[in-house]
Amino acid sequence: MQHFSSCILLLLLILTTHHFIPSLSEKCNPHDKKALLQIRKELGNPTKLSSWNPKTDCCNGKWLGVVCDTDTQTYRVTNLGLDELDLVKPLPIPPSIPNLSFLSFLTLTRTPNLVGPIPPSIANLTKLMYLYITQTGVSGEIPNILSQIKTLLTIDLTNNKLTGPLPASLSSLPKLIGISFDGNQLTGTIPESYSSFPKSFTVLTLSKNRLSGKIPASLTKLNLAFVDLEQNALEGDASVFFGSKKSTQKILLGKNSFAFDIGKVGLSKDLNALDLKNNKIYGTLPVGLTKLKFLRKFNVSNNNLCGEIPQGGKLQRFDESSYAHNKCLCGSPLEGCKA
Q: May I ask which residue range the UniProt record assigns to the signal sequence (predicted)?
């Protein structure tokens, strides 16, 4: 009888231990798991998130787009990538995303049916470093409240349906490296405050919007690696982005109404792309262009340039379409200058 009781006790012990194994071995923080499952529900349970199985550990590496912190072994969700979701109808950014309070990396991309504004509650993500919302139907203004997330390094909001002005407050972000707001319907001017971006700030891309007005002269303080303002309605002096002491690699200003003397600008030795087409830029091309060793993209067509194209370096590698339709530009690869 005692042997039978011992067997029953052993069996119960095995059963209860086995019953608790999943909960003991699960590393996913229950608060994060609850938030993730709520996010899936708010997105209409898309089939792409079928790997988010409530019976499994969200930190097992199999939950699509979910990465947990394994370095410090806190196993909080730090990365969330929601890309190319098959939403059955237009839905907003899930309101439960800000409940993932340890997020440092958030991407919402290539989902046209993701609509509505960027929620102000996103400011609750106080550890967020990288924010990517691209190729969606997200609309409304870029919220000023983003400037409260002091950890932000990169904000990429390209190819959405965002409207309104550029938030002036973004320059207060102490660690910001770059902003990319290309392909929206943003209006107004580039804020004067953008001259106060931190030294770490090197990327400013605002192409294919409806921005207008003049570039603040104070932006000359910036040392940008990459600036792209193409296809806006900007005007005036954009020479502020040039400078021989800067480490600029790309300057793309085409299809605006900029007007300044190109002959007076200093050139970064690192420059590999210079596109100034379809503006009102005047003067003669600087001889310094021939010394640019890395120049791979070059177009100054449809401006008011004059004088001889400097000979040498990589300038003659570009065909005549890169120089065409100027006031009186001449020399190879265009027709020779008249004596």
A: 1-25
pTM of the predicted model as reported, rounded to 2 decimal places: 0.91
**Residues 169/192, Cβ–Cβ less than 8 Å:** no
3-state secondary structure of 205: strand
> Binning pLDDT at 50, 70 and 90, where does residue 13 land?
very low
Place of tokens 């320059």: 171
Distance CA 328, CA 319 (A): 17
Overall average pLDDT of the 94-112 stretch: 98
Instruction: Indicate if the pLDDT at residue 10 is higher than 70.
Output: no
Give the pLDDT confidence score for residue 11 in this predicted structure: 41
**Percentage above 70 pLDDT, the chain:** 92
Whether residue 333 is preceded by a cis peptide bond, meaning omega within 30 degrees of 0, is yes
Which whole number is the average pLDDT over 96-118?
98
Sorted by sequence, the CB contacts under 8 Å of residue 74 that are 6+ apart come out as 29, 102
pLDDT band at 20 (very low <50, low <70, confident <90, very high): very low
Whole-angstrom Cα distance, residue 6 to residue 25? 28
Structural tokens at position 281: 């830029």
Distance in angstroms (rounded) separating the CA atoms of residues 164 and 312: 45
124 φ/ψ angles, rounded to the nearest 5 degrees: -70, -15
Task: Locate 203 and state its tokens.
Answer: 């990327």
Radius of gyration of the chain (CA): 27
Residue spans of alpha helices (H) in 29-84: 30-42
Three-state DSSP class for residue 74: coil
Residues 6+ apart with CB under 8 A from 159: 134, 135, 136, 182, 183, 184
